[in-house]
Amino acid sequence: MRPRAVVAAFKQQAIHFISDPQWIIPSILSPLLFTAVMLMLYRDLTGPVVLQAVLGGGVLGMWANTLFSSSYSISFDRYNGTLEPLLLSPSEITDIVAGRALWNALIGLSNALLVFLVSELVFHTEVSLLDPVMFFLTLVLTLVSLAVIGILLSTAFVLSRMGSVVASMAEYPIYVLSGALVPITILPSGLQYISYALPPTWGVDAVKLAAVEGYQSMMGADMLVDIAMVILLTVLYFLIARFLLKRIERRILETGSSTVY
Amino acid sequence: MEDEHANAYAITADGLTRSFGRGPGEKTAVDGITFRVRRGQIFGILGPNGAGKTTTVKMLSTLLLPTSGRATVLGVDLSDHKAGRMLRSRINTVSGGERGLYYRLSGRQNLQFFADLYGIPKRDQKTLIDGLLDMVGLSDAADMKVENYSRGMKQRIHIARALVNSPEVLFLDEPTVGLDPEISRQIRALVRRLADGGTTVVLTTHYMYEAEELCEETIIISRGRIVGSGTVGDIKGIVSESTVVRVVTDADPLPAAESVRTYPGVRRVSVQSVGGRFDVRIDTDGEDGASMRHIEDRFREYGIRSIGYDEPTLEDAYLRLVEGEP
């Protein structure tokens, strides 16, 4: 990997983001609406349940933002005619997608923090965090794990013109399977195994452990297990994404589909 | 032997072939072409739309794997995918058209982005990018978003983008298509300067005047195959025995043109209306006094303004080769 290329892609994505107002919808309005809906659903409850609702809203916002911006990353270049110059450069496509995903992750993090702020100021939820430092760290880890799933899904966009359908299909399952919306213990046991294979599931569990007093963690895991699992699965998903992106590059060179969209 | 080739030639292609699709629908875009490009020269690949020019450039610039055959660029065998990747820092391409830039970035930001992808040190980037913007005449518009650029400006920033890594071989795929004459002239001058500086330039075009002005050697491709090759002079030589008769008339001479088309030795007749007059162009097999007299007699009733011989051009040779005439 070339760190310079990752930073360049991060900057390029930032400029695109700032100059394109449409990103206000997934990045700001969407998470706020999620949180508002959840707080209205839980309006008669207080304490940890409300905090879980706010956390859920934050994670939903982070995922929506990451999913639609990172997974669309390469297909944007193919549509824009910039995939050929990118392929022609000595940098890896993974560098470029990763740099963009990092920017999207940063925006996702600011979404989550915005959700907390609005919950406090608008809905007066009086959220208090058990361990603010660990909360912030685990939130960042969760975000990176979501970003890596976004990179993985970007391969679907390249392989198929129906990539946007795949991304849309992936939106709600992650909300449910990661435990952001409801505890995964209430899911059917078969689905719980899928949840355990997703890195953000462990991240969300760690976030809740750090934030909510008395939270019963998934499978009785403690904070260290959650963090180890989220890191392990994130690295694994990244390696799979990198392998797939290299295969895809090879396929593009074989089929001559760099400008076909 | 390989080193000798690498030193003498920037590019070698031997039986290079590329097909798309499989089975009955398979289409061969490039069909076993063989040619050599010397270092530092401007080499033209001419041909009509769909002839296989862009496919050839994509193969040579590592963007498309050949189906069969062998090609080397700067001594690197392109069938070796990993070696091909290493080559990318030494070559670059420019395609005609408006796509291929980040519109929400300024011209300068586009160049900085690609300079980073090529690993150009930060300390060198300002001088490099300022120099490139100056070279393509975009210094004043450097910080304007590309979405506000005219087509000519976009094409010039494309060229600047392709020069960020100071490529040893530059592929220009129809770089002046759709541009006005003034911008096209500037781009041709730029290409000439690059070649004078030692860059090997491979230029695809279907503008004959462009090839005639720039290219030291050319190949002409039609339906994926080379139908002519050599210097512009060599290719013109194909039609050196031919004669072009030009007649300008006051009245529409279409009936006369139709009858002249059947004369022995006449290859092609075209009539163009220019400023209320009619410009007739008759391509013949050779200078033939009898034919000339016949032509003059036939067109007299339409009011001949002028009549005379023209030298055959590269376009005449190109058309003959592409249309497969003997």
The end-to-end span of chain A amounts to 27 Å
CATH class of the largest domain in chain B: Alpha Beta
The main pleated sheet of chain A reads as:
none
Order of helices and strands of chain A: HHHHHHHHHHH
In DSSP terms, counting alpha (H) and pi (I) runs of 4 or more, how many helices of chain B? 12
Q: Approximately what portion of the residues of chain A adopt beta-strand conformation?
A: under 5%
Give the helix level of chain B as a range of percent: 25-40%
- What's the CATH topology label of the largest domain in chain B? Rossmann fold
The shape of chain B is globular
Q: What would you say this structure looks like, in words?
A:
- The complex is a heterodimer of chains A (261) and B (326).
- Chain A is mainly α and 261 residues long.
- Chain A has one domain.
- Chain A contains eleven helices and no strands.
- The radius of gyration of chain A is 19 Å and the shape is globular.
- The longest helix of chain B has 16 residues, at 181-196.
- Chain B is globular.
- Chain B has helices at 2-8, 53-60, 81-87, 107-117, 122-135, 151-162, 181-196, 208-214, 232-237, 254-260, 289-299, 314-322; strands spanning 9-20, 27-38, 42-46, 68-73, 76-77, 91-95, 169-173, 200-205, 217-222, 225-230, 243-249, 266-274, 277-284, 304-310.
- Chain B has twelve helices and 14 strands.
- The interface between A and B is medium-sized, with 29 and 36 residues.
List keywords for this structure.
heterodimer; A: 261 residues; mainly alpha; globular; B: 326 residues; alpha/beta; Rossmann fold; 12 helices
Summarize the SSE layout with pairings:
The complex is a heterodimer of chains A (261) and B (326).
Chain A: H1 3-18, H2 24-41, H3 48-70, H4 73-80, H5 83-88, H6 93-121, H7 132-159, H8 163-177, H9 189-197, H10 199-211, H11 223-255
Helix pairs in contact in A: 1-6, 2-3, 2-6, 3-6, 3-7, 3-8, 3-10, 4-7, 6-7, 7-8, 7-10, 7-11, 10-11
Chain B: H1 2-8, E1 9-20, E2 27-38, E3 42-46, H2 53-60, E4 68-73, E5 76-77, H3 81-87, E6 91-95, H4 107-117, H5 122-135, H6 151-162, E7 169-173, H7 181-196, E8 200-205, H8 208-214, E9 217-222, E10 225-230, H9 232-237, E11 243-249, H10 254-260, E12 266-274, E13 277-284, H11 289-299, E14 304-310, H12 314-322
Parallel strand pairs in B: 3-8, 3-9, 6-7, 7-8
Antiparallel strand pairs in B: 1-2, 1-4, 4-5, 9-10, 11-13, 11-14, 12-13
